[in-house]
Design brief:
Order of helices and strands: EHEHEHEHEHEHEHHEHHHHHH
Largest sheet: 8 strands, mixed
Oligomer: single chain
Shape: elongated
Radius of gyration: 23 Å
Distance between the termini: 62 Å
Strand order of the largest sheet: 3-2-1-4-5-6-7-8
Length: about 300
Amino acid sequence: MRIAMVGLGKMGMNMARRLLRGGHEVVAFDRSRPSVEEAAREGAIPAATLAEAAAKLSAPKVVWLMVPAGAPVDENVEALAGLLAEGDVVVDGGNSMYKDAPRRAERLGRRGIRFLDAGTSGGIWGLSEGYCLMVGGDEAAFRLLAPVFTTLAPPEGFAYMGPHGAGHFVKMVHNGVEYGMMQAYAEGFELLSTAPFPLDLPEIASLWNRGSVVRSWLLELAGRALSKDPSLSGLSPYVEDSGEGRWTVERSIEAGVPLPAIGLSLYMRFLSRQENSFAMRMLAALRNEFGGHAVRAAAPEREKG
């Protein structure tokens, strides 16, 4: 099957590679010319513009977007509405907000163009391990793209979730769960690192993945990281969030569903970015005010040369 991959970042490029290795034809487009050239060297059909990419497809044309959420997706959807025709398919495989899918589907639907929101999980390991695909939108389009999904995913690794938005909704909650799991592992290994015994943390991570109820791929990755640097001293404690964790917590508020573990894991990421937290300084000041507890003066700022 011939398909256009628009957006050749870490995920998009590897997805293009997996499709090529699976016998599909891939038309590759990205605003970065070197990325297009790299894909072409691996067998993709290069395109210098989105219009050229669409022109190199045959009906029904399929365009898979792997671009940042928000405005970049809307810009591509708007452009494709004028480049594609009735029966063609647009897939948004990025981490988009699920509430945006019905609006995008409606915009493309005016031209008879079908839309799928495909939550995609697998990260940089997807090339070798496959991608878990959670797909919402036009069910006939889902069936049409079954050969593509079969190539991208591991066995039984893709499924139809429901109407427009369902795919990205499931992926949103997936990422919220991921936040909580990562936080639990981080806290557990921090406590292990304080043990009054000479523990081998990479060995423990490997051990826990052998029959333990807490075994997982994330734990395997934790073991890899600890094997490289057991103290993780080479890393900054600053942790970003992709947005999906925030949306998960926002949805929990809308639905009145308590998510204490996931919510706190998100707030811990915010805390990781505060080098000199006002809240922590306020806590120190209050302890000093009511109990006379000792406080530490702030380190003097270095003079600017």
